[in-house]
Design a protein that fits this description.
It contains 6 helices and 9 strands; from the N terminus they run E-E-H-H-E-H-E-E-H-E-H-E-E-H-E. By secondary structure, it is α/β, with parallel strands linked by helices. Helix 5 runs antiparallel to helix 6. The radius of gyration is 22 Å and the shape is elongated. The mean pLDDT is 89.
């Protein structure tokens, strides 16, 4: 389990390594082992970027994924993790939206990787501003249950303003809470 900065958590699963020129018969044998890849919300392709065969290994993995996931565009849910950047010249591998350079040995780039994972899972989140009576502790605790609170402020002693992020299912829950409250308002930011 990996707790993300947004308050969300994700479960990490490791799959088997890849072998270049994997025969089709072996792909079928590995198919059960690789089911996590098929059902994963996000695929992290971790590879050694310091090796001289790094690009060829990357292509082998992508070709294998193409065969396993032939009927879907998995590239939208893949982040390439370039490991062992501590063995490269500075600036050789640049961070992009879907490529994150890291060093498992030194820890360099791991925070960037966590931020990238969090951004992927939060890309469809909505930012909301809720205003309600400060004395309505039940409403406030329910907001904490359904959203990641970014900021809380007080208009005066009587009104509380919460800025938060929520995914689509929890947005529906918050919307219902606001409807059921006599004193709460909500707006999307």
């Amino acid at each position: 389990r990996l707790d993300l900065p947004s308050g969300k958590a994700c479960l990490l699963a490791d799959t088997v390594g890849f072998i270049s020129d994997l025969p089709t018969e072996l792909i079928e044998a590995f198919h059960a082992t690789l089911e996590e890849v098929e059902t994963a919300a996000l695929i992290l392709h971790v590879r050694d970027v310091s090796g001289r065969d790094s690009e060829a290994q990357k292509e082998d993995v992508l070709q294998t994924l193409d065969k396993l996931l032939e009927h879907e565009n998995y590239h939208e849910r893949l982040i390439e993790v370039g490991n062992k950047v501590d063995l490269l010249e500075e600036g050789t591998l640049i961070k992009t939206e879907m490529t994150v350079p890291v060093s498992a040995v030194t820890g360099k780039g791991l925070d960037d990787l966590i931020v990238s994972i969090d951004a992927y899972f939060g890309k469809d989140d909505l930012e909301l501003e809720l205003e309600f009576d400060s004395g309505d502790g039940k409403f406030q605790s329910q907001i904490y249950a359904f959203a990641h609170v970014l900021d809380i402020s007080y208009e005066n002693e009587d009104r509380t303003i919460i800025r938060c992020r929520a995914d689509q299912p929890n947005y529906g829950q918050i919307k219902q809470l606001v409807r059921n409250s006599a004193n709460a308002t909500m707006r999307r930011l």
